[in-house]
Amino acid sequence: MAMGNRTGNRWLSMRGLAAFAGGAVAAVIASRMLPPLVAQAAGTARAAAGRDPFSVLERDHRVILSLLTRMERSPDNATGGRMQLLLRLKRRLAAHALAEEDVVYPLLHDVAHAPEDARHLYAEHAEMKMHLFALEQMRKDDSRWAVRASELRLLIAGHVRQEEEVDFPKLRRRMDERTTRAAAGGVQREKAFIV
Ligand SMILES: [Fe+2]
Ligand SMILES: [Fe+2]
Description:
The protein is mostly helical. Helices cover 82% and strands 0% of the residues. The protein contains eight helices and no strands. It has helices at residues 5-20, 24-31, 37-48, 53-73, 79-110, 115-137, 144-174, 177-192. It has one domain: Four Helix Bundle (Hemerythrin (Met), subunit A) (Up-down Bundle). The structure holds fe (ii) ion (FE2) (2 copies). One fe (ii) ion is lined by residues 100, 121, 125, 159, 163.
């Protein structure tokens, strides 16, 4: 669903606050405050197609890491480019995190019985948001901007490895067909909130 930047930012701050407060319930309530009809329809249609929820998330990982590499390599005088890359990263990461936090990690906790893994991944998402905040606040011609982007890339690369090599496989093993279809719909629905 399309949102203006102003609304989008406010929405992201709400999500950030909820996550820092550990307020999973608050986050779910906040997510229901947006009119989700179109998103729901899209999610339901794709769930019916039985798409694997994890392959969609793995594709996001590749895009997110490539944006971060471009940020890391950007010269200090490319201020407009840095701003644009950061906005693209924020939007992509926000949609991705929404799907994982509201659909995948609860399944990791309840179905794969890996509560420590789930808590660890939630905490790393909070760390990512701190880096994004710093990158947004810093002057875009500051030489430390690329260093911060590099730190965020390393954090996300490790997080992605944990998801793809450990936790997604755990879920794939434990989820039956019905749960997989429901998760695929849920992932698409959550991602559609921020496009
Ligand atoms: Fe994640
Ligand atoms: Fe992920």
